[in-house]
Amino acid sequence: MKLKKSIISVAAFTTLAVSGGASASAQNIEVKKGDTLWGLAQEYGTSVDQLMTWNNLGSHVIYPDQELQVSSKEYYTVKKGDTLWGISSLYGISVDSLVGWNALDSDLIIPGQELIINLDDKSTSAAANTSEKAEAPAKNQEAEVAPEAEAPTKEAEPAQAEPAAEQTAVKEITVEATAYTANCDGCSGTTATGVNLKENPDAKVIAVDPDVIPLGSKVYVEGYGYATAEDTGGAIQGNRIDVFLPSKDQALDFGRKTVNVKILETK
User: Fold this and answer.
1) Domains detected in the chain
2) pLDDT at residue 120, as a whole number
3) Which of 37, 56, 69, 239 sees the fewest Cβ atoms within 10 Å?
4) Which H/E stretch holds residue 42?
């Protein structure tokens, strides 16, 4: 029985406590059954690689109810007593970056104003902030926050980066996918081509019908990632594949689904 892919991801916002009672929020979503990293990247205007980086993922496999960050931006709400230097020090960024991201014309910030913190650029701006800290006044002598002035109009946010270009596919097919593991009673743990999966639990391997996908082929499986066709199976006939996962629980969570497979290179 095929499972219908969920096309709705509910957006949630997590709050991170910071100094002075202020807060910052980053956009997160809860994974629904049928969601894939590729589908979420398309929905939120980012790339699979970015989603993996933001969420410290070691593979393309995601699970229902898992929480994922889908945006590189946080929004910091200014409180009375905040300064640009203090906020930039909190995030390890430069004042210039903070000014640039928010199109500020001066050092003046307003209570209740929302400031964009671009997490993708933190490493770039951190070096610039080092010299700023050395020259910063000992008692935070930046311009004080105006207590009752109106916040400036927010500038339009820059467009999200396009998904990274993928390797050219020799062929693309739609298949029914299930998952298997080497850790089961009676399992040898060795693939049809001789790969020992018990010794290589992080291997990205799929079982195929060699008449459809030749053994040794390099592929990209939607929701699983880049892999190699290294195995076969009695039930894997026609447009069917089995993806290898390290544990039985992960294989059960993967379930049965219809996915696209891009055959990138054949042997």
Assistant:
1) 11-135 (3.10.350.10), 171-265 (2.40.40.10)
2) 63
3) 56
4) helix 37-44
